[in-house]
Design a protein that fits this description.
- 4 copies of one chain form a homotetramer.
- By secondary structure, chain A is an alpha/beta fold.
- Helix content of chain A is about 35%, strand content about 15%.
- In chain A, the strands form 4 sheets. An 8-stranded parallel β-sheet of chain A has the order 3-14-13-12-11-10-5-4.
- Chains C and D meet through α4, α6, α7 and α10 of C and α15 of D.
C-alpha cells in the first residue's frame, strides 16, 4: 500500500547511473554472487581476479565476490576466502583491478551456519537447533549465545576489512538457510531463548548482524541485505514474515538496499535455480561425503522448477509494496524487456548470475543492441563446477585445442597404414 | 438467447455510479463478503468497524459484512453476528461509519445449515437429509418443515433489522451448501416431501427465503441473491439447474441483483478459491474438532485449482445469457482489464474479495492509474485467519516493530561481550 | 500438392450464398446432424419440426436431420426415422416448414451396422466381422454379400424418398464406425472376400453406397459424404487411407461435398466430442443394456479430449490438400474467426453442432455482431439427452416456471405458521 | 561471445543464392537426408532418381542423398548404397538429373558403427566398446585401431568417388551414434587407448574422418559435418562438448559448413523426431530381428517428444555463438517465419526433412506465397516406411485408383440383384 502511482511515470533507463548508498554505479546492473571456487587457502588468486575483471569489462555496474566467510566454521568450502588480515593484499589487488574497468565491487559476507562444510572446516556446522544433515551425513552443533555474539562481531570486522580492501559494498547473506536464514526458519529454529519462537526472536540475529555492520563501516561503503522470501519447503520462512523482516531492516537504517532471494542450500537448493536439475552431474563431481549424501537422498533433494524470465518478480513485488528501501531484483534477468519491467515495478537494480557466466559481455552487447537475449539455457550445470572454478559449461575453457594428430601424425601416413592393412587382408 | 447485441456497444465505465435496486452506488465495485472473524459474542466490534471503514475509504462502491446468521444454530462460528435487537446499536455504528466514507454497505444474511458449527452452537447442524459431517465428526439433524418455516421467517426478520440498522442492501446466502444451497444439491437433499426431489421442490426453500425478505423490506433496501452455479462435486447442483433457479429468482421479483458463486464449504471449499490450498496452515489453526477432521480427510478435502483472472466468468456468462436481472461478477477480479471485460459481457457490478484484503485501497489506486494490478498472489492463507481476524498474511499487522535490542541492548556492548569471549578462548 | 496459392486471395465471406451441388444455400453455415431423439414410431413429430424450424429461423444456410436409417436393423434407436413411404408425409411437412424460414434441409442417411441397437431392433447388429459388443453385451452378425447388396440398394431408395420429401440434400453416413465406416476400419474388418483386406476392398461398400445414391437421385439434390478420417483407436482407419478414399469419392463423381469427421460410436465416441466426458450423466440416462455396458467398461470407453476451436481443422486440411471437392469443416466452429480461417483454408462450408444447440440463433447474432462468441462450454451433457429429445442442458426447457407456492401458499401465512411455532416453543 | 551485433542488421533472404564452400546454391534451403530405402543391391534405382528429381523440381537449393556407407559393415540396410566403383554410373545419372532441375546435390557418407545391421551385413556392428544391442539382439564388436584407420581412409575414398560422380557436396555423418558419434559418447566409449577417455581422444575419429575427406577432395566439392549436440540420454554427448568439437572442426579447416543434429539411432531415435512415436506401425513393418527387439523394449525405446517449430534452434544457437563456420539449421523448419528467424540468428542455410516428404513442392509454393505453411503433422509414420521406399503416408502413392466395380459391375445390376433377394425373402 506504499506504492506511489506517480512514481510509475518516471521509469529509469537501466543503463543510466544510480546511487547505491554512498556509491554511484555506472548503470543499474549487478553481477550477482555466484560462488567462484577460485580462491586458494582462503586467499585471492589471479584466476579470481581475472573472473571479476572479465565481468567488470563486460559492462555491469558492480560485480559481487561471492560468499566470503566471517569465521572458519562458517565456510562452505575449505579454500573459501576468510576475512583475515592475510586476505587483504589479494582483495586490494582484486578491487583495484575491477575499479580499473570502471565497475564497482561488492563482497558477500556471512556465516554458513548449517550449510557449513564440517569435514572441510574440521568443525561441526552451527545451527539454531540440532539436526542431522543428510548431505554431509553429520549432526550440527547448536549455536550458543556466545557463538552468536562472536559471529555478530565477526560480521562487523569483516565489513571493516572489506572497506579497507577497497570494496564499494558488502552484501550480508541472510538467505539460503545460511546461519541468519536458518534462525529465521520456523522449521529449523526450535530454540526457546530470545533467538527462537516469535518472528521478533527469529529475526534477532539477522538484525544484529546488519546493525553491527553499519556500526563498523558507517556510510563509508554500501550495505546490501540478501534476504530469503521463501525457503521453499513447508513450514519454512515465507513471504508473510519476509515482509516484516524487510520492514525491520528498513527501520534499522542499517542497510542501503535489499536483494530478495529464495531456497535453501540445506533443504531445497534448486528452488532458486529454476531450470534443469543437473542430478547426473552433481553425483559425479561432489566431494565426499557430499557425494554419498547426494546419492542417498537423490532426486528428493534436487527438484526441478520451470524457468521463466523474472521468476522471482511476483514474490519480490510483495516486498516492494511494503518498503521504500532501494531493491535489487534477482532471478531470470535475461533481456532488456525484463529489465525494463523491473524498473517499471520500482526496483532500482537488477542482478544477473547465470546469464553473465554464459556471456560476461552480455551487458555491453545489450547496450549496443536492445534486442540481445541471453544464451543461458538454464541447464544449471554451472552449479556442478563450484569445486573447480565455476563456469558455464557452454563456454569452452580457453585453451581448447583440436586433438593432437594421432600417432601416425600425418593424414598421408594414416592412409598408408590403412593401405598396408588392406594389402595384408 | 436473451442477449441483445445492441447492448454491447454501451459498455459502462466501472468507475461510474450505478443503481442497485433502490440504492445508487458511487461506482460498480463491491467488496465481496469475506468472513471477518471480528465480531465478539455476536456483536459488532471496533475492529470490525475499522475493517469496513478501511475498505470504504479504499474506494469501493459498497462493502459487504460477511455472513450474519438468522438463527443461532445457523452460525458457523460461536461469535458470529446474530440478527437480534441487541446487535442493532453496533450495526448502526458500523453502517454510519461506512456511509461517512461515501460507500454503501450490505449485510450477508443466511442460515449455514449443514455448514453450521455444532460444537460452537451447542446444537446439531440442520440439513435436508441426515449425513455424517467429516470435518465436524458429527451427524446433522434433518430440518423439519417447521424448522424451515421458522428459518424463512428469520430471514425476513433479519432483513428488517438490517434495514433498521442502516444497511443499504442484504445479500441472501444461497450458495456454498449453506442451508438453502444444501437443499438445491441433489447429492445432499434426498427428501421426499415438497422440499426434495424435483428442482422445483429443491429450490422451494431458496425462493421462500427471498420472497420473505422482499415481503419484509419491500423496496426500502436492495436485495441480492448469492447463488451457487456449481457445487464442485459429481452429482451436485450445477449450471443447468442454476440457470432455471436464476430465472425463477428473476420471475419472483424478490431480488435486485444476482451474484453467482461456486463450491461447497462442506464438500469442496477450495472450488471457489482458485490458487494454492493452504493445507499446512489450515491444519495448524483450526479449532477442534475441525482440526482433527481436517487431518483425517486431509488433501482429499482441500483440492487446489489453478487461478486465472475472472475465473467464474465463463460459467456466470451462462446465467447472464438467460436473465435480465442485474448481475455481480465475482472471482478473480484483479485489474481494470477484467473489470472492463465484465462490463462488456453485461455484468453490472464486480465483487472483489482477496484482492481487497491484500490492498484495501486498490480501487482508489486503479482509478488513479488504470494499469494498477492487484498484488494478491492467491496463496489463500487469508482463509486460515478466519478465527482470529481475517487478513492477508502479506499485509503486516499494524504494530510490526523491529525486535527489541538483545539483552546487551547496545551494539557496542555486544561487541564488548564478544571480545570478552574471544579473550577467554 | 493440389493447393492453388492463387486461390488464397479470394477468401469468401461465410455469410454470402454458395452452391452445394444443385442447391444454393443462403450462407455457408450448416447445422450439423446432432441426433434429435424426437421422432416417434419412426415418424416425424411436431417437436422435431419445431427443432429444425428453430435452427432455420436462427440463420443457418441448411439444417440437417440427423441419422435416418435405410433399414430396420440399421437403427440405433427404436423410434428412429426409417425411410419408408409412411414417413414421407411427416418429412414433407418438416422440409416445408424449414423452407418457409429460408433455409435448406438435408437428411443424414445410413446404416448403423455394428452401432445398431440389437435390443431395440430385435435383430443383431451387422458388422464386417463378428465381434462382441461391450456396450450392448451382444455379438454382432457378419453381414453377407446379400445383406450388403440390399443395403446399398436401400441407400438409393432412401435418397429417392428424401428427394420426394423435399430435402435439398442427403448426407451419406460413412463415419463413426457405422456400417460403411466399420468396413473401412482394418481393426473391425477381417473379411477375406472382396469387401475386406486391401483399402480398395474395405472402401468398396462406401463407394457402392454413394454411387447408388447418385444413380437414384442424379443431380436433383445434393449428395454429401460424411467420412471418418481417424477412428480414434490404434489400428483403425486413419488419415493416410482417408485421403485415398476421399480421392476415390471425388473420382466417383457421386458426391457434391465432403464432410470429414472422426471417432467411433463403437470404440471411442468422445474422440469427436472434445471437451468433458459426461460419464456421470451417461450412466444415469442410458437404457439397458447400454447402462450396464457403460458401467462395465466405464471410463475406458469415455475418454476426455481437450477442446480447441476448429479442432478437426489440422486433420481436415490434409484431405483438403488432395481433393478439389467442396468441403464442409466440422468441429469446434464457435466464432467468426474460426469461420474465416476455414474459408481461408479452402473449405466451402462450416458445420456447427453443439454451438447451435446452445444458441439456435447464433448465426443471426454473429451476422449482426461479428464479435459474438458461442456460449457452448463443451460439457457434452447434450449427448446424454438423446433418448428424451436432444438439447443443451444450459437452455432451460420452455415452461420452466417458479415452483408453486408451498402448501401455506401465501408468505404471510408462512410467517404466521412460524410465529405459531415459536409461540409453542 | 563471438556474435557480432552488427551482423544482425544484414539478415539475408532465404530465397537468395548463397555459397557453400566452392558451390553456389540457388537458395538457402536444403532437402535434409531422410533415408530413402530406394537403392537395390547397393546401387541407384530409377525410383531414387525420381525421388531426388522431384525434390529438385520442388525448389530446394540442394538435395541430399541419405546415408551411403563407406564400408560394407557400416551399412544399416542390406541394399544401402556402398561407395564402390560399381555405384558410380547410377550416381552420375542421379546427380545429372538433379542438376538438370537447377538444384545441387549432396551425398551423406559415413559408417554406421553400432547402428549397423549385423544380420543384413553378415558381420557384427563395430563400436568403441562392446555392448549388447537391444534392437538387433546381438553383441557389437570392438573396433580395433586398424579398423579405424581403414574406415578413415574409406571416408576419403568415398568422398573422392562422390566428387567423381558429380556430387556438389558430401555430408560426413558425425551424429546419431553412428560410428564417429558413438566414439564421442562417454556412455558408449569406454576405451583406454587414444580414441577414448578425454574429449580430445573421443573426438579423434571424427576429426580424422573430416581431415581425410578434405585431403581427398580438397576444395573441389563442399564438405558438411553433421554433428550431434545432444545424444538424448543421461551421460551421452552433450552441448558443452559439442561446442568444443565444433570449434575443432572449424580449426581443422576441413569442413565448409556444420549441421547440428541430435538423438541416437541406438538409444533414443525419437529424440530428433519430435512429434508422435509411431510405435504401432514400427512393430508392424520392421524386419527381424528388429521387430522382436522393438517388441521387447517397446515404448522405452520410442519416446514421444513435443513438436515445435525450429525445435533444435535453441541448442544450435549455443554452437552458433562459438564458431564462425557457416551453419545449416535443421529441425522443425515449416514456414517462412522460422526460416527468417534462422537467418536472423546467423544460420546460413535451413534443412527440411519431413516437411518436404509431405510436400516436395513446398519451397516453390513458399516462394510464390510467403504465408504457405507445411502440412506435415509430425506423425512420423514416414519413419516406418524406410524398408519399402520412404514416403509421407499422407501422400497417396501414384496409381491410387478407385476400386474396381463389384462383381455385378454395374450399379443397375446391383439393384436388380438386391431386388431378387428381396423377392426371395
Amino acid at each position: 500500500m506504499t506504492q506511489d502511482p506517480q512514481a510509475r511515470h518516471e521509469v529509469p533507463d537501466v543503463f543510466t547511473p544510480a546511487k547505491l548508498g554512498p556509491v554511484t554505479l555506472r548503470n543499474r546492473t549487478i553481477k550477482a554472487a555466484t560462488y567462484e571456487g577460485m580462491s586458494h587457502k582462503s586467499l585471492v588468486t589471479d584466476r579470481l581476479i581475472d573472473f571479476h575483471v572479465q565481468h567488470a569489462a563486460g559492462g555491469v555496474g558492480m560485480t559481487t565476490v561471492a560468499y566470503c566467510a566471517v569465521a572458519p566454521e562458517g565456510r562452505t568450502d575449505r579454500h573459501q576466502i576468510l576475512w583475515r588480515p592475510e586476505a587483504l593484499p589479494g582483495l586490494r589487488k582484486l578491487t583495484g583491478a575491477v575499479h580499473a574497468e570502471g565497475a564497482a565491487i561488492s563482497a558477500q559476507i556471512g556465516h554458513a551456519g548449517p550449510v557449513g562444510n564440517p569435514k572441510a572446516n574440521g568443525a561441526p556446522a552451527l545451527s539454531p537447533s540440532r539436526h542431522f544433515h543428510k548431505t554431509t551425513l553429520s549432526f550440527t552443533k547448536v549455536a550458543t549465545r556466545d557463538d552468536l555474539a562472536r559471529i555478530v562481531k565477526n560480521h562487523g570486522d569483516a565489513a571493516t576489512m572489506a572497506a579497507e580492501a577497497g570494496f564499494d559494498a558488502v552484501e550480508v547473506h541472510l538467505g539460503h538457510n545460511y546461519l541468519a536464514s536458518s534462525f529465521l526458519s520456523p522449521k529449523l529454529n526450535h530454540r526457546d531463548d530470545e533467538y527462537g519462537g516469535s518472528l521478533e526472536n527469529r529475526a534477532r540475529l539477522a538484525l544484529e548482524m546488519v546493525r553491527e555492520v553499519r556500526r563498523a563501516v558507517g556510510d563509508r561503503i554500501a550495505i546490501i541485505a540478501k534476504l530469503n522470501m521463501d525457503d521453499g519447503y513447508p513450514g519454512g520462512f515465507w513471504l508473510d514474515e519476509a515482509i516484516v523482516v524487510a520492514q525491520w531492516l528498513e527501520q534499522s537504517e542499517a542497510v542501503d538496499a535489499l536483494e530478495m532471494t529464495a531456497g535453501s542450500s540445506l533443504l531445497n537448493p534448486m528452488y532458486l535455480f529454476k531450470g534443469d536439475a543437473p542430478l547426473h552431474e552433481f553425483a559425479g563431481v561432489m566431494p565426499e561425503p557430499l557425494k554419498t549424501g547426494i546419492k542417498l537422498i537423490g532426486s528428493r533433494f534436487l527438484h526441478s522448477y520451470p524457468y521463466r524470465d523474472g521468476y522471482l518478480l511476483e514474490d519480490a513485488k510483495q516486498i516492494r509494496s511494503h518498503v521504500k528501501l532501494p531493491m535489487i531484483l534477482l532471478g531470470g534477468i535475461t533481456d532488456r524487456q525484463i529489465m525494463d519491467t523491473a524498473m517499471a515495478e520500482g526496483f532500482e537494480f537488477v542482478a544477473l548470475g547465470r546469464a553473465l557466466l554464459r556471456e560476461p559481455d552480455l551487458i555491453n552487447r545489450m547496450q549496443a543492441d536492445a534486442r540481445t537475449r541471453s544464451l543461458c539455457n538454464h541447464n544449471n550445470k554451472c552449479m556442478t563446477k563450484i569445486y573447480g572454478g565455476t563456469r558455464c559449461v557452454l563456454v569452452p575453457q580457453p585453451g581448447a585445442r583440436p586433438p593432437a594428430q594421432p600417432p601416425s601424425a600425418d593424414a598421408t601416413q594414416v592412409v598408408e597404414a590403412a593401405e598396408r592393412l588392406e594389402a595384408r587382408a
